[in-house]
Amino acid sequence: MDGQISLTDYMYSLENQKDKDDVYLDIKATAEKLSVSTATIRNWVNLGRLSAADVPGRKLLFNKKDVENLVADIVSGKSDKLTKRRNKKAVKGIDLYTDYIRDKNGKNILIGAYLAKKEPSTYTESNIRILTAHFALELYLQSANRPLQSLSSYLSKYDDDFSTLLHELIGTLEINEENLLNLPIPEFTPFQDFLGFIYISINKTADRKVTGSYFTPIDVVDHLMNNLSEYMDANKSLIEKILISGNDW
Questions:
Q1: What is the phi-psi region of residue 89: left when phi exceeds 0, alpha when psi lies from -120 to 50, beta otherwise?
Q2: For each of the chain's 249 residues, which pLDDT tens digit applies?
Q3: Type and span of the H or E element at 63
Q4: How many CA atoms lie within 13 A of 41 on its CB side?
Q5: What are phi and psi of 201, to 5 degrees?
Q6: What is the pTM of this model?
């Protein structure tokens, strides 16, 4: 009868589908493998950064082997496809964000490089909090032309606004001064976010992705701030412009 299919043809179609599933991934499965959205996959295809399989039909398919190789290259650092757009799950390791600060003599960037060489697993949340507090104190004392002193010493001697901020950052964490003794001393530079640079350079990539921590190079920020009128709609405030811009900001 019309519209019916023989058992032989049905079994053949199932076998064909099984073979296809072994060779190809659809867009949803590909997105899951790469830990990005399906919209990002479509965008990569349009930009030529990812090639779809040449398979008849309207369904977007990708060679399973190619996708698995890409995932392996990303994890190992051979591919930078996902460094252009940080996703939420996949990439491991540490990146040094040298374009996050403007450092004329390179001293502060070298401190970031020194810290990034250490084993990523050593940077637990507790260690990062204490390290950030340590550097924050050194920068603060430099800016006030005061002699440097240890984190423990400062917190025990002073009860000012800055010590309150330090207490809020480290809470009840135990400070091991021995781990801070041999660290390089940063150079205070007005309007330079050295602490942000250190944080994003030593905080594990996976942790930054999970919390949605994205960062814009200082040159881009300068350009936008110096040309606000060009980007502003007369009927919208700055905060509205940022909120509706999505991943552009």
A1: alpha
A2: 445 555 555 444 545 554 455 788 888 888 887 767 788 888 888 888 788 888 777 688 899 888 888 777 765 555 555 544 444 344 344 566 777 787 777 788 888 888 877 776 777 888 889 999 999 999 999 999 999 999 999 999 999 999 999 999 999 999 988 888 788 899 998 888 888 888 877 776 556 555 556 666 667 777 777 777 666 666 656 555 454 444 444
A3: strand 61-63
A4: 20
A5: -85, -25
A6: 0.52
